[in-house]
Amino acid sequence: MIQISPSILSADFSRLEQDVVDVEKGGAHMLHIDVMDGHFVPNISFGACVMQSLRPRTDLFFDVHLMISDPLTYAKDFAKAGADMITFHYEADSDPQETINEIRDLGLKVGMAIKPGTDVKVLDPFLPQLDMALVMTVEPGFGGQKFMTDMMPKVEYLRNWANENHKALWIQVDGGIAASTAKTVADAGADVLVAGSAVFGAPDRQEAIENILQAAGVSL
Ligand code: DX5
Ligand code: ZN
């Protein structure tokens, strides 16, 4: 099943609740929450307190993408603030195995992300333990960038691994996902599509979500 996870990075923060309710009613399956620290990536977004305020306002699954240097230290704060899944970067300076253990101990689903320049094979030792692998299709840090088609072999690699090992692994793509790129990522094997500007930038969010799903081959 293909799922859409709209990224609130492209929402209007002055009316965050309305924007989130809008995508919830519009058929979003998850809510993608981009946390940036101005250190791991050259941009600062928001932290756990914003998430905590949002938590009682929606029933959407909170798909938290930590673009921060020390995810091991901060995972607990995001768990308390209502995360359902925490995805951290392989390139961050926390030990990946310890970070997976911590997120599991907190009772959450766990994902690992890789930047465009990172070899997908670095994930090999961790794949059996993950709920999701995230292939960045732009350099992390900003919404509205151009989709990198050359990341698709990574998605194919992960899909083949999951098939061969009979493992339920969500494969998420993040960056430049829109109706125009949805077929490419779905054909490669991605099943969780993050879309920021393509959803929140559209006047009709339900239509935007449906357009992406249809382009990905889902019949509505
Ligand atoms: C980028 C973030 C993305 C971003 C995607 O660093 O991780 O989630 O919001 O935005 P679009 O869909 O506009 O490329
Ligand atoms: Zn993201």
How does this structure look, described?
Strand 6, helix 5 (152-164) and strand 7 (170-174) form a beta-alpha-beta unit. The protein contains eight helices and eight strands. It has 220 residues and is of the alpha/beta class. The protein has an eight-stranded parallel beta sheet with strand order 1-8-7-6-5-4-3-2. The model has no long low-confidence stretch (mean pLDDT 98). It has one domain: Aldolase class I (TIM Barrel), CATH 3.20.20.70. Bound molecules: D-xylitol-5-phosphate and zinc ion. The site of D-xylitol-5-phosphate has 22 residues, from strand 2, strand 8 and helix 7.
Q: What separation lies between the terminal Cα atoms? A: 12 Å
**N to C succession of SSEs:** EHEHEHEHEEHEHEHH
CATH topology: TIM Barrel
Low-confidence stretches: none
Quick tags:
220 residues, 34% helix, TIM Barrel, eight-stranded parallel beta sheet, 8 strands, binds zinc ion, binds D-xylitol-5-phosphate
